[in-house]
Specification:
Length: 203
């Protein structure tokens, strides 16, 4: 069983929390691991991995939705969106956006926690990001300096909208923080589910 629901973007925008809440619904089977990353190679212009993707959903029990929570897909734009559409024609996609400065700072702290970016304060980091050529940011080796460019959502959104139309839902980190109950209810309504079935212990 392959996924038909994708939390496809964007990193450091609350995707882990949203995935956890949605996966707690009895009508949604969350991937194990949360981020299978099957379509990520397309972001870098590389071929897909061998077809073992279904293993991430081997535990499904017939849930209506099977959720892949790989937020890095968003940066693949049309290449990833079209591949998902071809593999799962009835799929729905959620893109979660965060105010770019807050997202950049969260990304900066995340890369620091990995033992990278030592000796750089946030201001220096932003300047370094802006100085890196765009072509370098399109390669895996440029990920340390992707904090600023990663918030330029308009670069990728049109391609996702073209591929999915009404099957695409764009939400915002601020809404998730301010009123997650309302956000979950809206998403569940869109999926034909009852948000009240998410256990209270999860929300």
């Amino acid at each position: 069983m392959l996924p038909n629901l994708f939390l496809a973007g964007f990193p450091k925008a609350g995707t882990t929390s949203l995935f956890s809440w949605l996966a707690a619904h009895p009508g949604i089977c969350g991937a194990r691991p949360k981020e299978p990353g099957h379509f990520l190679p397309l972001r870098w212009g590389e071929p897909l991995s061998p077809p073992d993707y279904a293993r991430s959903f081997a535990h499904t029990r017939g849930e209506r939705w099977r959720l892949d929570g790989t937020p890095g897909y968003g940066y693949g734009g049309g290449a990833v969106a079209d591949a998902i559409r071809a593999a799962s024609p009835d799929a729905r996609v959620i893109l979660l956006l965060r105010e770019p400065v807050g997202r950049a700072f969260s990304y900066y702290r995340y890369r620091q926690s990995q033992g990278r970016l030592t000796g750089l304060d946030f201001g220096d980091y932003v300047e370094r990001c802006l100085a890196v050529p765009e072509a370098e940011l399109e390669h895996r080796t440029g990920l340390d300096w992707f904090g600023v460019a990663g918030g330029c959502y308009a670069h990728w959104l049109p391609e996702w909208q073209a591929a999915f139309g009404d099957a695409l839902r764009v939400e915002f980190f601020d809404t998730l923080v301010a009123d997650r109950a309302a956000l979950l209810e809206a998403i569940c309504d869109w999926l034909g589910l009852d948000a009240r079935e998410i256990p209270r212990s999860q929300t």
